[in-house]
Amino acid sequence: MILYPAIDLKGGEVVRLRQGLMDSATVYGADPAAQAASFAEAGFEWIHVVDLDGAFAGESRNAEAVEGVLKRVDVPVQLGGGIRSMGQVEAWLSRGLSRVILGTAAVRDPDFVKAAAKEHPGKVAVGIDAKDGLVAVQGWAEVSDMTALDLARRFEDAGVCAIIYTDISRDGLLSGLNLESTRELAEAVSIPVIASGGLADIEDVKRLVSPENAAIAGAITGRALYDGRLDPREAIAVAGRKEA
Q1: Catalytic: 171?
Q2: Per-position b or e across 186-215, b if 16+ CB within 10 A of its CB
């Protein structure tokens, strides 16, 4: 199982939000590239980056910071936030990004997402951010009437390489992953599902690798790392007990 350390960007800085609220940001550093290098040196296989400003604006707002990350590390990087056109997808992949994450576009323009996945196999993931089971878009500012499962099923056999499923109500609160909902989603679709939102400590990682959660392919961790509640090397070792 792969653990993805998160670098959330706001105004060029590394931050963490609580439940997706922009005015709740805690700043953890002013050098995203250095943070990425630290994660790579700790042994993480991937890095998860989110352009928070871009998610609200619908276009890249932290491109310089993301490019700095890509230049600094050799491990693959996935990016979400404000990517809403084929041109943006192609531009980021050409700069060395390994995977783009499409969220709002998956709700509002699923045909574009399917076309991007077909054009760039293995490089397009769908971000499903849910609040009380319903999908939120536009940087979590708007909640739709679509369920997470209904959205995921749209992309079966479309070539999407992964689904990042975030429980907004838990994000940044260190309250534990919503493993039940994530497991239900992972068991209902053939696309690999990555858990996000609330990973608190090593016990969460141990639960992720338990047999009952075998369908979950990975998890994103943020505040637990920044606050020192999760030791990177121990977490990676535990995650390695389950195949991705």
Answers
A1: no
A2: beebebbbbbbbbbbbbebbebbbeeebee
